[in-house]
Amino acid sequence: MTRRADILLTALAPAIWGSTYLVTTEALPPGYPVTLATLRALPAGLLLLALTRCLPPRNWLARVFLLGAFNFALFWVLLFVAAYRLPGGVAATLGALQAMMVIGMARGWLGTPIRAGAVLAAAAGVCGVALLLTGPEARLDPVGIAAGLGGAASMAAGTVLSRKWQPPVSALSFTAWQLSAGGLILLPLALVLEPPLPPLTMSNLAGLAWLGLIGAAATYAIWFRGVARLEPGAVSMLGLMSPVTAVILGWGWLGQSLTPLQISGAMIVLGSVWFGQRANRPAGVRTRGTTVEHSARIA
């Protein structure tokens, strides 16, 4: 596939993740963040393990559990804490800082050069998300801010390390390993910290199926495939598609209004994503046609 096709396919994952807020608020019981995160990760991971029939070798277990913690367990728990303690716009703006963090982490762990254009695109994306989602009534809670920054750092670390550690298996198997590990980490936390779930309705089950099968298993396989093929900075910029989708779904599904300022923010986000792909493009990749040279993959 061409680099452009890889970008478009990878962008599907965060675009679909933008539906998480709508599904969580409209279809899932409130007040069970860790339990719901466990039910999102563990069944999806075990299903993929059954389909791929590929278990991680012993020498990969530590890496798999670390990646599962960064990409799922720690990230989702901190994400829920930030969502509960901060307005959604503030939490999303803090999450958008992930793109800036990836640039620094990729420099330290992968030796990726820091490009001024990439930093500019990431900064513009943060400003766009702030305009898109943050209102004048936004309040700042210290614990929520710490959780939001921690969640962004966790996902950034998971993205860069997923690129650094590439096992000789398919993206689907790599996703299965990480989802299962993340779910196993979350399971004891859910049992200790939260009461049992109430009887689930058909709407609850449908929401869990969407978040687990589509919002976790399918989309993270696409995401990790993109992490393996694209530059870390380019992949992290695609994550900004998630708040754009969330706002579009809120407007179209929930009847929420869009102000001119929000529309401007959405345009800035989309422009920063486009510019970020160009700024992070390796020198050996053409803008049109097929890829002629990719950056060396670091094992």
TrEMBL record:
Its main location: membrane. Pfam families: EamA. It is found in: Membrane. The chain crosses the membrane at residues 32-52, 64-84, 90-110, 117-136, 142-162, 174-193, 205-223, 235-254, 260-276. SUPFAM superfamilies: Multidrug resistance efflux transporter EmrE. It is a multi-pass membrane protein. Keywords: Membrane, Transmembrane, Transmembrane helix. One of its GO terms (cellular component) is membrane. It comes from the Bacteria. Residues 7-133, 144-274 form the EamA domain. Belongs to the EamA transporter family. This is Permease of the drug/metabolite transporter (DMT) superfamily.
